[in-house]
Structure formats: structure tokens, C-alpha cells
From TrEMBL, chain B:
<dbReference type="InterPro" id="IPR017900">
    <property type="entry name" value="4Fe4S_Fe_S_CS"/>
</dbReference>
<dbReference type="InterPro" id="IPR017896">
    <property type="entry name" value="4Fe4S_Fe-S-bd"/>
</dbReference>
<dbReference type="InterPro" id="IPR009051">
    <property type="entry name" value="Helical_ferredxn"/>
</dbReference>
<keyword id="KW-0004">4Fe-4S</keyword>
<keyword id="KW-0479">Metal-binding</keyword>
<feature type="domain" description="4Fe-4S ferredoxin-type">
    <location>
        <begin position="84"/>
        <end position="113"/>
    </location>
</feature>
<keyword id="KW-0249">Electron transport</keyword>
<keyword id="KW-0408">Iron</keyword>
<dbReference type="GO" id="GO:0051539">
    <property type="term" value="F:4 iron, 4 sulfur cluster binding"/>
</dbReference>
<dbReference type="Pfam" id="PF13183">
    <property type="entry name" value="Fer4_8"/>
</dbReference>
<protein>
    <submittedName>
        <fullName>Putative sulfite reductase-associated electron transfer protein DsrK</fullName>
    </submittedName>
</protein>
<keyword id="KW-0813">Transport</keyword>
<dbReference type="GO" id="GO:0046872">
    <property type="term" value="F:metal ion binding"/>
</dbReference>
<keyword id="KW-0411">Iron-sulfur</keyword>
Length: 337, 543
């Protein structure tokens, strides 16, 4: 049901663009204003969210340690999984952000005859997530050729690499294939695995469909509808240089694509997609694990905390302590007053 | 454990397929055997926590204060500001499900609300529904819901089914620690007086007498004295421990579980023997405290504030006695608190001039990793002694033991104490076999103690939660003949014996220093015929 809602929502959005930019001829709105607004919402929203997180305190040093601590000199420390230096923390974060280290560890539980439980390595999610994020990144970078003049060598290089196989005309991008496959996998997984379906919300399906919609509209445009690339570039360059123009006859597919991208951008800061920013701020991963060595300061103070002092304790139990020859601070007679 | 089903039956009931209905539509059903009794109002009152009253989780009416929602909202708002971890964890979970099957309570019960992601989602949905614009407008469509009494009951039921072991966090791509969420969830529940008695009463006891069973100083002394009698019987050597001694070198603090319940008591005898040995051979002066006689910090299960109030005793006592540093016994969450909270909570203002960076006067080793807290784990300490050849050990005395090692969650995932205990264990036993990968070190499974520790009333839950650990033990038992499970946690020693008895009855549980003491050879001791448990030593059986 939730998946259907989300699918329907994405169709509705596409239809909106189709009618708006096509039948109603609002090319300016769909080509310029909405994308511009979306970028603004994205940038401002993203920053606001990060600042909002940043405003919350980090009172305690609570990293999850995933390896041997720094200890006696002859015990080998796991400097990345249990770092006690900034360098180690940086390495830990890099592995996490670039290679999804924690997902790599993933296992799957199974029950067997009798009372046996087993755990087997399960790397599909890791692979799917990695394929998804890296192809997404490549595609975003590739698109930079629309916004730059001259196109930087690195972007041209990425593009050349991506169309290495030289299939079809225009040549097929490898990332397009990987991307669609990865998103599809992430979606199918959500529907097929009962536990994952159980925890999935509309917000989990919606971005997947939206992204899939963006991918399909883009692919359709490139390989089938064949929109006018020159005009697209003209529009894109106009957007970034603030000399807004809408060239004639780009084709409605382009506006659908652009609109879905805009929705994604605007939706981003409001949603779980913010994990992109949050991953860097997660205290269980980005803190130094040497909390016995270096003191971590809590920025806020506990108020009105009363301690049970030794004096109070001795006053209550003095007699019993003296009875057992346990040392006391005040002799019995004095305490009895 | 009378009405507990047989292990095969309990196991056969595990089903990982969630119900058809959406989880928000599945009402909470508080099942006997899976929850602990409500906190005794006297205990709640004693430590000044609000809304102490008699209430019963099975009743419809939980006698909530009138403005309970407001209390929760204010509490939640405050904590979102105070804990970045909490705020981020509320916002960035992508529900990828990597953590779903990592929780021992889910593995053993199949209850989908025991999947860490969903456990946190119970709170997250309310956060979304009541605190975010999106959720307020779109409600359920945005995954939000309102805070109702049913939701509150669900929180209570499932947050106390989390043992805050952090296993889920290891697998989460963002390090989302569901323990952090349930710690705060429990803090919120505490604002309404909704604790369980297995936490509230130990907290009150620790506060008053220094230890969780409420043992007063004279009785504490008697218990230790009694161990000394036993040790004398077994070895011919009588330890003479000191208590509350000003000017001692080191203050020793261990969880009081070691002092009062088998098999922790054997570990406690182990400490006594080690210290006696060090005193006789090297003149090391270690003292015990009756005031700070609890290492385990039950405040950790209550609120950060209560944790601070209990923790402060350690430094206050070290300061009063003028010791150089503190040695900590084998305990789980005590060490999580020491490693990650203590210095922040009760740093310099409680730690006065006399404390030094810990160093072992016998070996000269400086524990640089504890430079600020001034507190060393006894596994680190003993490993150092053994490495420098300072202990005379005879492994043969443990020849009847085939050991495997349980990494207790908190030392494993809260500090990374993995190789020190292994080094010590391998130095004192001949046969040692690791459990399978994926069930040890940072991926270790919780004993399943959960909130209820050793409570009889939630034994079904504890057996379910204990399944993954017990299962890995069963594997090495069946395959290699392992018969002993070692650990460095008093809660483990309280919980694991029951769960072993249930799932793998042939395997026993012990602490690290019980094994050390068995192997430790005193000059001039009599020939030992039994181990600390009074069981015949190999080769010394009565004919
Ligand atoms: S692994 Fe982390 S992100 Fe994934 S569902 Fe669990 S808590 Fe959420
Ligand atoms: S019991 Fe452990 S694994 Fe389960 S939710 Fe709590 S912290 Fe996570």
C-alpha cells in the first residue's frame, strides 16, 4: 500500500509537469523558477538542518568501539575501529563514508532444526548501497557538463570512462544501467523481505520511486525522445549565470525530468535523505575512543544533584562499623550526639 | 522457571515473519514472563525521582499524572537539545534494516518490535508526529503518530526489553545506537515514575548503602570474611584484606554481585587471593570500601543524573582515603560508565590532588590509557603482571576446564577490552576455544539479562534473549567439548548460569579471576585438593 501511494505520488508529479510545461506552456516556471527555488530550498534547508543538529550538545564521549582498545604496549590496538587519535577517527569516518564499512559487516540470521541459530555474511545490501551511491555520484558529476563552459577535463574524463563500452548511439552510460539496477534492488528488497517491508514507511518508498522516475525520464530523453542537448545546455548555463532563457522546443520530457529533480532537491532537507549530512555528525562514530585518557567536557551542567556523602553514610552505620573494627572518621560517642 | 516452555518448544515458536497489519495498528500486549514488576514507590522516593506510586503494568490505568503528555513533551524537547546523538538518531535512520536481525531479543523472540530499528521507531514516530512540521501536517502518512497512553505502554514494554548492549550500533551505517534511544526513552518514563523494581530498588540501595542489595557495612565485612575462611580451608593461606583504609595504594571497587551471588563469589575469592599474593610478595596495599562497595551503576538504567550521583562515590571515596588510583573489578556496565561517562560526570571536582596517573608499582607499567580517569580494569592489571612474570601460575590446576570466552557487551563495545582477558585466560587454563566469528569480540551477544537482571518474573524474555549467546556456546560445547564460559561481567555471572542451564546444561559460568586464583601458587601454601568451588582438582580426586 505504502509503495503504491508513493508510486502514485511520483506519477502525479510527472503528470503535473507534463500538463504544466506541456499543455499549459509554463516552460518558464518548470524550466527556471521551480528549479531555482528547489536549489535554494535544498541549500538553505540542508544548512539549517546541520546547524540545528550542531546546536545540540555532545555531552558524553560515547563512541561504539569495534575493536581492541589502546591498552598495554604489547597488545595490538585496532587503531581504526577503536581509535585513540584524531588520525584514527578520520580513517574510521573515511572508511564509513566512502566504503560503508559497517554495512560490510552485515550478517543474516537463520534458524535450523533443533535449537540451532546461524549467522551468515550478507553483503548484498552493502553492494547495492555502494553501487547506488557511487553511480548516483557519477551521474551528478557527469551532469556538470551542462553547467560548465568549457567542460573541465575531469568531468569529460568521467563521461568518457562511463561510456567505455561504446554501445549504441548515443553511447550507453554504464552508470545508468548500474543505477537503475541498484535502485530497483533497493526497492525490491523493501517489498520482498518481510521484515524490511514491515518497517518501511511512505518516506522510504517515495524517494526510491522519485529517483527511479528521474532516472527513467533522463534515460528516455537521452536514448529515445532525443531532446535537443544544445538547448538544454543553454538553459542550464542560463540558470547558473542568472541570465535566464528558455530555448524553444526542448521537449516536455525534459521538463518532467527537471521537475522531479526539483522535487527531490526540495524534499531532501525535510527527509531521511539528510543521512548524507548526519553521518558525519554521529557521535558513536566520529569521536575519539580514548575517553579514559582525555577528559570530555559536558557543555551543560546537572542541576540540583545531591550526593550521598561518606559522612551521611557513616552517621547511619557508625555503630555497626565500629562493631566490626572498620575504621571510622568520628568516634562513636561523638557521632551519637 | 516453572511455567517456562521447554527449550525446543520455545525455539519452535520463534517466527521472523511479522504480522500482516501495519505495526502502528498492532496494539501492545504486555505478556507475563516478558516484563518486570513495577518499581516499589519507596525506592523511587528514596532517590527523589518523581511520581512514586503503586501501579501495575497489567492494569488499564497506570495512574499517570494528569499532565503526563506535557511532561513527556518537555522532557523530549529538553533532551533533543542536550543530546546530539539522540537528535541525529531521530532524524537520519533510513530504515535499511541492517540492524533488524542483530538484536538478541529479536533473534530469540521474533517479536518485530524487538528489531532495533522498530524499537527506536516507537519513539521516533512520536517525535515525527509531534515535533516535526511534516509529521504534524501529514500525520501517519509521514510516519508520525500521537502520544497516547497505549504508545506510552508500548514504550515502557519495549524499552525495558532492550539491554542497551549496542550490538545493533555496530552494524548501522550511521552508528545509530538504539541503546542511546532507549536510555533516553527510559529517562522519559522515569519522569512519570514508570520504572521497574529491578532497577529502582538497586538504585536506592546503592545510594544508601553503597551496593545494590542494600548490604550494610558489617554484613559486607562478614561476607568477605567468610570468603577468607573458605580460601584458608582450600589453600592454607588466609587473606587479610583491609577496608576503608586511609593511605592505601589502591582502592578496589567491584560490582557487589561478585560479593553476594554464585558464581561471582568465586571471582571475588579470586580478587582476594590475588591481592593477598601481591601484598605478601611485593607489599602492594589494596583496600576495599564499604561505602563505595558497588561498581555496577544502576543509575545508568535510570537517568544520566542518577548515574552521576552513584558514580560520584568512587571518586569521593578515593579522595577521602587518599589512594593513588582505583582498580576496578570485572563488571560490564560499570565499565561502560567508567570508560565513557565517569570523567565527564565527576572529573576534576571529585578527583583531588592525591590521585596519580595509574602505574603498577610491581612492573613499573604506566597505564597511559587511563591517565585522566585514574581507573584501571583488573584484566589490564593482571595481564600486565602475568606478562612481566610476576605471578607464579600453574595451569594444570585448571586442567578440567575447557574454556570459551564471552566478551561482555559493555567492555567489548563500550571500551574495547578484548585481548587483555584472553591473554589472562590463556595464561591460566590449558584448553581454550573461541566461539564462532560473528558471535564474539565486537559482535558479541548480550547475556540476555536485559532490564530484569535475574528477575524470576521475566525469565521467558531472558531465555529468549539468551539464545544467541547460548547457541554459540552450544556449538563449541558439542564440537570441542567446551565446559566453561568465562566472562568479565557480574550481570553475566548472574544471568548466564540460568540461560546455560536452559540451553546448554553441560556448561558452567565463571569469572576471569576465579581461574587466575585457581592457578595462582602461593609460597608455602598447602597442596590444594579442590578448586575454589570445592570441586576436586584433576589428579586429586578422592579414590
Ligand atoms: S541499521 Fe541504522 S539506518 Fe538502518 S535501520 Fe537500523 S538504525 Fe536505521
Ligand atoms: S538490546 Fe542491544 S541490540 Fe537490542 S536494541 Fe538494545 S542495544 Fe540494540
Amino acid at each position: 500500500m505504502k509503495a503504491l501511494y508513493s508510486l502514485f505520488l511520483v506519477f502525479a508529479l510527472a503528470a503535473l509537469a507534463l500538463v504544466g510545461a506541456g499543455a499549459l506552456g509554463m516552460e518558464k516556471a518548470f524550466g527556471l523558477y521551480i528549479p531555482f527555488l528547489a536549489v535554494a530550498v535544498f541549500v538553505v534547508g540542508f544548512c539549517m538542518r546541520v546547524v540545528d543538529w550542531g546546536k545540540s550538545a555532545v555531552p558524553f564521549c560515547i563512541p561504539t568501539t569495534c575493536g581492541q582498545q589502546e591498552s598495554l604496549p604489547w597488545i595490538k590496538q585496532s587503531t581504526i575501529e577503536n581509535p585513540s587519535t584524531t588520525g584514527g577517527v578520520v580513517m574510521r569516518m573515511l572508511l564509513e563514508v566512502l566504503l560503508f564499512r559497517s554495512l560490510f559487516r552485515n550478517t543474516k540470521v537463520d534458524l535450523h532444526e533443533g535449537t540451532r541459530v546461524t549467522y551468515s555474511s550478507s553483503k548484498w545490501l552493502w553492494l547495492g548501497a555502494l553501487a547506488f551511491h557511487y553511480s548516483f555520484l557519477t551521474i551528478v558529476l557527469r551532469h556538470m557538463r551542462f553547467f560548465t563552459e568549457p567542460v573541465p577535463g575531469i568531468i569529460a574524463g568521467i563521461e568518457a570512462m562511463d561510456s567505455m563500452l561504446q554501445i549504441g548511439a548515443p553511447t550507453l552510460y554504464l552508470t545508468d544501467v548500474v543505477f537503475v539496477a541498484a535502485v530497483t534492488y533497493l526497492f525490491v528488497r523493501r517489498v520482498v523481505v518481510p521484515q524490511i517491508r514491515y518497517i518501511s514507511l511512505v518516506q522510504d518508498y517515495f524517494p526510491l520511486f522519485l529517483i527511479l522516475g528521474i532516472a527513467f525520464s533522463g534515460i528516455f530523453m537521452r536514448y529515445f525522445a532525443k531532446v535537443d542537448i544544445i538547448s538544454v545546455k543553454q538553459l542550464a548555463m542560463g540558470l547558473v549565470t542568472f541570465s535566464w532563457v528558455v530555448p524553444e522546443g526542448i521537449g516536455v520530457m525534459f521538463y518532467i525530468h527537471m521537475f522531479l529533480v526539483s522535487v527531490l532537491l526540495a524534499y531532501f532537507p525535510l527527509s531521511k535523505l539528510m543521512h548524507m549530512g548526519g553521518v558525519f555528525l554521529s557521535p558513536t562514530r566520529n569521536m575519539n575512543c580514548a575517553s579514559r585518557k582525555f577528559r570530555h567536557i559536558n557543555p551543560w551542567k546537572f542541576e540540583n544533584v545531591h550526593y550521598h556523602t561518606y559522612e551521611e553514610y557513616e552517621d547511619e552505620f557508625r555503630e555497626k562499623m565500629v562493631d566490626k573494627d572498620l575504621p571510622v572518621d568520628k568516634p562513636l560517642a561523638e557521632g551519637a550526639e | 522457571m516453572s511455567d517456562l516452555p521447554r527449550p525446543e518448544a520455545l525455539f519452535a515458536n520463534i517466527d521472523y515473519t511479522p504480522p500482516k497489519a501495519d505495526w502502528m495498528d498492532v496494539p501492545v500486549e504486555i505478556k507475563p514472563g516478558r516484563y518486570c514488576y513495577a518499581a516499589n514507590p519507596d525506592s523511587v522516593n528514596y532517590v527523589g525521582l518523581p511520581h512514586a506510586r503503586k501501579w501495575n503494568p497489567l492494569d488499564d490505568d497506570w495512574k499517570l499524572p494528569e499532565n503526563w503528555q506535557e511532561i513527556i513533551f518537555n522532557g523530549l524537547r529538553e533532551r533533543l537539545q542536550k543530546y546530539r546523538s539522540f537528535k541525529i538518531f531521530m532524524d537520519i535512520c533510513v530504515r535499511c534494516g541492517a540492524c533488524a536481525d542483530k538484536c538478541h531479543f529479536f533473534i530469540g523472540s521474533g517479536d518485530p518490535k524487538n528489531m532495533p530499528v522498530l524499537r527506536a521507531e516507537l519513539l521516533r514516530s512520536v517525535y515525527r508526529g509531534e515535533f516535526t512540521t511534516f509529521g504534524k501536517i501529514l500525520g501517519r502518512f509521514a510516519g508520525g503518530r500521537k502520544l497516547t497512553p497505549e504508545v506510552l505502554k508500548e514504550w515502557w514494554y519495549y524499552f525495558f526489553q532492550c539491554s542497551e548492549c549496542r550490538r545493533c550500533s555496530v552494524f548501522c551505517p550511521y552508528g545509530i545506537d538504539t541503546a542511546e534511544v532507549t536510555i533516553i526513552g527510559r529517562e522519559l518514563l522515569n519522569l512519570l515514575g514508570l520504572n521497574i523494581d529491578w532497577i529502582a530498588t538497586p538504585v536506592a540501595n546503592c545510594y544508601r548503602t553503597g551496593n545494590h542489595l542494600g548490604i550494610q557495612p558489617h554484613a559486607f565485612f562478614d561476607m568477605i570474611d567468610f570468603f577468607c575462611d573458605d580460601i584458608e580451608d582450600i589453600t592454607g593461606i588466609r587473606p587479610e584484606p583491609s577496608f576503608n583504609k586511609k593511605g592505601a595504594d589502591i582502592l578496589f571497587i567491584t560490582p557487589s554481585g561478585d560479593v553476594f551471588a554464585d558464581p561471582g563469589t568465586y571471582t571475588c575469592m579470586g580478587y582476594l587471593m590475588l591481592f593477598e599474593y601481591l601484598k605478601r610478595e611485593y607489599g602492594l596495599d589494596v583496600t576495599w570500601s564499604t561505602y563505595a562497595s558497588e561498581g555496577g551503576n544502576f543509575g545508568f538504567f535510570t537517568s544520566h543524573e542518577t548515574m552521576k550521583r552513584l558514580n560520584s562515590k568512587m571518586y569521593m571515596e578515593a579522595d577521602r582515603l587518599g589512594v593513588k588510583w582505583i582498580l576496578g573489578g570485572e563488571c560490564g556496565h560499570m565499565w561502560r560508565v567508567i570508560h565513557q561517562y565517569m570523567d565527564t560526570l565527576n572529573g576534576p571536582e571529585f578527583q583531588h590532588s592525591r590521585m596519580e596517573v595509574p602505574s603498577n608499582p610491581i612492573t613499573g607499567t604506566v597505564f597511559k590509557n587511563a591517565a585522566s580517569t585514574k581507573m584501571v580494569h583488573i584484566a589490564e592489571f593482571t595481564a600486565d603482571l602475568i606478562k612481566h612474570g610476576k605471578l607464579n601460575l600453574n595451569k594444570k590446576r585448571n586442567a578440567n576446564i575447557h574454556l570459551t570466552w564471552h566478551d561482555s557487551c559493555n567492555p567489548a563495545r563500550g571500551m574495547g577490552l578484548l585481548d587483555e582477558p584472553r591473554f589472562v585466560a590463556k595464561s591460566v587454563v590449558e584448553k581454550f576455544t573461541e566461539m564462532p566469528e560473528g558471535t564474539i569480540r565486537e559482535q558479541t551477544f548480550c547475556c540476555g539479562g536485559g532490564a530484569g537482571l535475574n528477575a524470576g518474573e521475566n525469565d521467558e524474555l531472558r531465555m529468549m534473549g539468551g539464545l544467541p549467546r547460548a547457541n554459540a556456546v552450544k556449538y563449541v560445547h558439542d564440537k570441542y567439548g567446551v565446559n566453561m564460559l568465562g566472562c568479565v561481567c557480574a550481570i553475566d555471572r548472574a544471568v548466564l548460569p540460568n540461560s546455560m542451564q536452559y540451553w546448554v546444561p553441560e556448561v558452567d559460568v565463571c569469572g576471569l579471576h576465579e581461574l587466575v586464583a585457581n592457578a595462582l601458587v602461593f609460597p608455602g601454601e598447602k597442596e590444594r585438593e579442590t578448586d575454589l568451588r570445592g570441586e576436586d582438582l584433576p589428579g586429586m580426586e578422592d579414590e
